Amino acid sequence: MPIPPRPLTFICPRCAWQKTTVPLSDALEVGRDLYVQCPKCKHEPLEGRLATQAEILKAKLVSFF
Ligand SMILES: [Zn+2]
Fold this sequence. Notes:
The protein is an alpha+beta fold. It has one helix at 53-64; strands at 8-11, 18-21, 47-50. A hairpin with a 6-residue loop joins β1 (8-11) and β2 (18-21).
């Protein structure tokens, strides 16, 4: 049984850009579920960590609207 991917928060250490992704399946897509490069300043690599409950909630609200 596949393990569902966990929500992640990506952070750019250079410009403080931040994005939380909540993958819906294990078919991860770059630019939607994961980021390797900052879309603002093109810095890479980004820092990634597991999202907090508050960040997950916020990400879900954003995708709802
Ligand atoms: Zn950046």
